[in-house]
Amino acid sequence: MLAVLTSEEMRQLDYETIIKLRVSERQLMELAGKESYNIILKEYGKSGKCIQGKRFLVISGKGNNGGDGIVLTRHLINGGAHVDLAYLCLESQLKDDGLATLKSLKQYLTHTDRLRIIETDEAIPSIIEQASYDFIVDAILGTGYTNPDNGRIKSPIREAIAFINQKKSGPSTQVIAIDTPSGLDCTSGQVADIAVKADLTISLGFLNTGLFLEDGRNHSGKIALADISIPSFLINPSHAKLIDDEFVRQSLPKRTDQSAKHENGKVLIIAGNQTRKNSMMGAAILSAKAAIVSGAGYVCASIPQNAFNMFHMAVPEAIIIDQSIHELEEKLHWADSVLIGPGFGRTDERQAFIVELLNQPALKQKKIVLDADALFALSELDSWPILNHAILTPHLKEFERLSHVCADDIRLNRLKHVREFSKKYAATVLLKGAPTLVGNSQSLYFSDSGTEALATAGTGDVLSGIIAAFVAQGLDILEAGAIGAYIHGKAGQHSPDAKNRTSAMSVLAALSEVFLEFES
Question: What pLDDT shows up at residue 176?
């Protein structure tokens, strides 16, 4: 899996690379420019011919990101492109390494007419405004940028970003951002009042969290990673990681040839409610079906007695018991994992039952998944049971109730709040969203597989069933949440319905196809 770093973590890795490993900033700049060039060739053609005769505009800032752009310019010229390099400062304001590589590039001017170098410290000159470009490269701010207090980008950077976006609106101009789109906070993914909208972002060394959060998802375009030889041994377990196919394929539970059903995971699902006025049995059915499809050998559902027949017709594979503490005592000892909450109800009586259940001695030794109405019950408690064996699966508003932090603040600081909450309550948290974050006090995963197809009622119940099945089959809580979130997102992608009209049943139906893909 790839590491996904905040701005501060990026700075720390740069420091350790430069100071401790004695790799110079100039060396990193040269590698960044060269690898960016290689990625452009790969993305837009199989050889240098894809850029021969093409017109590039490279807009550079005065920092190291600008130096990366200057090095890239040299390689583009070597590859046969026509390049206008515009740097947004006086030459004397360039950092030493950027200035040195600019002086080297200027020697090209006596050998080729395919290069123009333009100093533009005030406004975009007409020579650039009136030109047409096949590609525009944003090398202005880089990952060191954070949102200013007033939320506004200063001139001339502001005008340069507006110019890039205006040129991008044309039918044939591709925008490439080096490291991160300028104007995007690479930690939070927030955009100030303006930011570059890239078609391709070339992330240098490691991915940054802002590319996946908030506005970053709409500004980054396709993301490619450039290896600039910052060693992976500098990464530590606290750095977030991006879940990928390889991780899921290696970690998915697998049945042995000689296994029996009781050896493949026993899931107890305590869910659903049915009264004369309403029914929430659909949530229990979706969770149970998802657990079965996800490989659980046994699924037992604790549901209201008046829903037994209906549930048996919907999920004939499941064992059914009543919803009473007495009936549950034996099954709590029997189960390998316990899922509590989907469609259970929020009346005082139903909530009191969940609280009583959470304090059962047998449950304290079990791996549990708390979802939906179980999360509501937790949020109402003054003191919580020990949760180091639990995964909580809230959406944003549920997490607001649990953490007593406003949803807007959580949205803008997802990593911080997931980490703080997990540490405070010793629990694993799966915060649903785009992306989904899964973390505990030591580790954090990004799952970026989801789509808008999952933004419909019932898909969360499918997810909780998947996770409960994975836990029952032997995965630890964190791993089960991470892989479950990724598989769930893939099922949303595979759903046969149009993304804006997908149902939870469609996502459930797509699970088998997703598992076949990973097991082939």
Answer: 98
Query: pLDDT for 186-244, tens place per residue?
Result: 999 988 789 999 999 999 999 999 999 999 999 999 999 999 988 888 888 889 999 99
Bridge partners of 429, per DSSP, are 392, 439
Using alpha carbons only, how large is the chain's radius of gyration in Å?
27
Considering the domain delimited by 245-253+263-519, tell me its CATH architecture: 3-Layer(aba) Sandwich (3.40)
Residue 155 dihedral angles phi and psi, to the nearest 5°:
-75, 150
2-237 to CATH, choices 3.40.1350.10, 3.40.50.10260, 3.30.420.270, 1.10.1670.10: 3.40.50.10260
With both helix axes pointing from N to C terminus, report the angle between 25-44 and 64-78 in degrees, rounded to the nearest 10: 50
Confidence of residue 124 (pLDDT cuts 50, 70, 90): confident
CA distance 331 to 181: 53
Range among 102-116, 133-147, 168-182 rated most confident? 102-116
Do 245-253+263-519 and 2-237 have the same topology in CATH?
no
Q: Which amino acid is at 352?
A: A
Per cent of the chain over pLDDT 70 is: 97
For the chain, the structural domain boundaries read 2-237, 245-253+263-519
E strands present in 213-335: 222-226, 240-242, 266-270, 298-302, 319-321
Residue-wise DSSP of 412-467: HTHHHHHHHHHHHHT-EEEE-SSSEEEE-SS-EEEE----GGG-STTHHHHHHHHH
Characterise 170 by phi-psi region: left (phi > 0), alpha (psi -120 to 50), beta (else).
Answer: beta
Please give the backbone phi and psi of residue 359, each rounded to the nearest 5 degrees, phi first: -100, 5
Rounded to whole angstroms, the Cα distance separating 432 from 149 reads 29
**pLDDT (tens digit, 9 = 90+) per residue, 337-348?**
999 999 999 999
Contact call for residues 270 and 283 (beta carbons, < 8 A): no
Name, in order, each residue with C-beta under 8 angstroms of 9's C-beta and a sequence gap of 6 or more: 239
pLDDT, position 152: 80
Q: How far is CA 515 from the centre of its chain?
A: 21
List CB contacts of 406: < 8 A, sequence separation 6 or more: 400
pTM listed for this prediction: 0.92
Position with higher pLDDT, 496 vs 423 = 423
SS3 36: helix
| Structure confidence by residue, pLDDT tens digits, 285-300 | 999 999 999 999 999 9
Q: Distance (Å, rounded) from C-alpha 467 to C-alpha 372?
A: 14
DSSP state string for 270-286: E---B-SS-B-HHHHHH
